[in-house]
Amino acid sequence: MGEALVGPERPILADKAYTELKSRILRSALAPGEKLSIDGLAKRLEISQTPIREALARLEAEGLVRRRPLSGYKVTPLLTEDEFEDLFGMRQLLEPLAAKRAADLDENLHDGNVANNLRMLARTPDFDSDAALSRLDFTEADKRFHNYVGQLSGSPMLAKAIDRLDAHLHLHRSYIEPKSIAETEREHLAIAAAIIERQPLTAAEAMSLHLENSRSRHATAFLRSEAVVGPRKEVNRTP
Prior knowledge:
Elements: H1 9-26, E1 35-36, H2 38-45, H3 49-61, E2 65-68, E3 72-75, H4 81-104, H5 106-109, H6 113-122, H7 134-152, H8 156-167, H9 170-173, H10 178-196, H11 200-229
Antiparallel strand pairs: 1-3, 2-3
Helix pairs in contact: 1-3, 4-7, 4-8, 4-10, 4-11, 6-7, 6-10, 7-8, 10-11
């Protein structure tokens, strides 16, 4: 396949490759830990290698694939149990604070779009077990809501930290039960309402409760993922 793609064609193909690869990763059609060959993916998707490389770079930035020198890319492995607990511990430190600040920030009060955006982003898409992109839609919707709350905190560093932590949950969300999606929406709406009504403590409490419930839902998904891909080895920890 030629590499001389110019003009609008290359970005379109890169977007197509990104969407398809992300869907396959979240559906475990590309399994956690699986090595990825750029040439093999190009042949499989019938797209030249340059858009594939661009798509993989985007997926790496989201934490869905990893790149190692001289080894190429592989799908990011699922979290170990210790990493899972660390992740939710960090989220409990950061995200209630972000929700509290979002409800307390004067700039948000004067932005007429904030309330509408929060209500819209709190909604989760309808789940169809027969639709390949249903869980992909859910992961994107969930990420957008949490990232927006982070942005409303007024702290770019806090927002960036939340964005990076959320990436680690993408793979686990592919094992979430459909009923959990409706529960997530109700909790998101409670957080949104507290921010809109400018109740900082209520917003922080609603976010903390959501994360506690989310941890339980993901713990169940964690066990389901182990049944599919097998147990993960614990990482070595340095003091």
